[in-house]
From TrEMBL, chains A, B:
InterPro entries: ACT-like_dom_sf, ACT_dom, Chor_mutase/pphenate_deHydtase, Preph_deHydtase, Preph_deHydtase_CS. This is Prephenate dehydratase. It is an enzyme of class 4 (lyase). It comes from the Bacteria. Keywords: Amino-acid biosynthesis, Aromatic amino acid biosynthesis, Lyase, Phenylalanine biosynthesis.
């Protein structure tokens, strides 16, 4: 049984990713993303699961900053889960009586249309996480309050789902990465949907067309890119690096060829990982050991 | 005097951007990013200031989603401010007595190294914002507590800066955009450092090299790109659009030429705005009217 550190508290979206991938292992909530990756560095956990894209809870930038600036631990897997928000109430309360809705500010923002059309007169109160909001509702059965949170929080805090799927955009997903101290082959409860390779490229200068030249190296090899993002280098404004996701496993010829060519052109190239990609369809029925 | 809606509460980083740009106008805090842009839609405010990159408080994705999916209001300005975090205490307390530190979870993560080296034994408690943490410390002068927040919060809640600049990365910046209902020329207290044009491009298909082809149109015209980011279309996994920042004002020939060419190739192209760029060096000495 492995020890899996994740961005807590219990019943966050990161927790859903952990339960989906590692239902048999021991999940250990961590307070922040750096704390989670530090636990990996100190061998207190075997794997770290942290958000990397489109996150509700943690800042994705903090994840990238740690991997790029602190310790280049390899990404050994990724998990994509749908963002589904529900309105949760205590079973002793009725939906029409609700006067206050608690949640994380981003979750409130994600359910803006529903709140404006269906629950117009309610007061909205920010909490530190969707899980904390669900806990509050569970702890205060006599108050006319509801929480916006995920289905795992409903289960964890024994709340009723009064309204399902109240988020504004139905195709919104969050992506998490699994980080290990050394590259390894994951044993997960899910079947992988394919492979990805994540590469960090920093350009030698800012001149127009440098990125275009970098992408040529991928393009003429028919390497499909599923993501590209520029990020400031933190050495001052104007210096950027790029995070590029390639839609395949690292091979012996093509990707090493790109790396060698870009390095010859003066770029710095680092492979952050080549890993299986998992997707979760349903977020119910997930349990820790 | 204009009415400026911003992502509140008072003394957030967004508030700093507002005070830097519009010290003479009336700043009106809003609970969420969609609420802020809705206020603009309903003519309750004249301008909206919301985070667009590297944000501590709001989700940048929520800003982009609103502009792309709800209402294509033009970006009329941008403001970049440095992320500086300080340790704030009540003047009646001493730093060596502090037992608990309150802040937003992202701010706690941003000061991870300082907290691990200098304040090892303290308890860390998440709050809904850095401003809320500062308010808590101000309201509880007898408790041995500190807050991580910005200099504006220190001023607003009359707290002492016990440790200045405790954030891990010194070149971290946050970018905010000013959104209006119609394109307009901003009157601000800052001198602009240049112009940017933001373009949204969606590709006709996912084939390898499509992005490379798109960038060619910019590259051979010597249009320098300061940012490129891929974002899912929300019509399902695998459909992406790109947000591209060009480092100049829109002209009559080059940028319209790119747009026409890309549209002829089957891309959808939308100019989100062409606007002056402001940078704040110091974040002290900023006041609302």
């Amino acid at each position: 049984m492995k020890k899996i550190g994740f961005l807590g508290p219990v019943a966050t979206f990161t927790d859903i990713a952990v339960r989906g991938l590692f239902p048999e292992d021991r999940a250990i909530p961590q307070a922040t993303i750096p704390a989670c990756l530090d636990s990996l560095a100190n061998d207190e956990i075997d794997l770290a699961v942290v958000p990397i894209e489109n996150a509700l809870e943690g800042s994705v930038n903090i994840t990238l900053d740690y991997l790029v600036h602190e310790a280049l631990y390899p990404i050994v897997g990724e998990m994509t889960i749908p963002i589904r928000q529900h309105l949760l109430i205590h079973h002793s309360q009725k939906l029409e009586d609700i006067q206050t809705v608690y949640s994380h500010s981003h979750a409130i923002a994600q359910c803006h249309r529903f709140l404006h059309s269906t629950l117009k007169a309610v007061e909205l109160v920010n909490m530190t996480s969707t899980a904390a909001a669900a806990k509050y509702v569970s702890d205060h059965p006599d108050e006319k309050v509801a929480a916006i949170a995920n289905a795992l929080a409903a289960e964890e805090y024994q709340l009723t789902i009064a309204h399902q799927d109240i988020h504004d955009y139905s195709h919104n997903h969050t992506r998490f990465i699994v980080v290990a101290k050394q590259d390894c082959h994951l044993k997960t409860a899910q079947k992988s949907k394919g492979y990805k390779t994540t590469v960090m490229v920093s350009l030698p200068d800012d001149r127009a067309g440098a990125l275009h030249q970098v992408l040529s190296a991928f393009s003429w090899r028919n390497l499909n890119l599923s993501k590209i993002e520029s990020r400031p280098m933190k050495t001052g404004l104007g210096n950027y690096f790029f995070i590029i996701d390639i839609d395949q496993k690292i091979d012996d010829v093509l990707i090493p060829g790109v790396k060698a060519e870009l390095e010859a052109l003066g770029c710095k190239v680092q492979i952050l990982g080549s890993y299986p990609s998992y997707q979760l369809g349903k977020i119910e029925e997930l349990t820790h050991k």
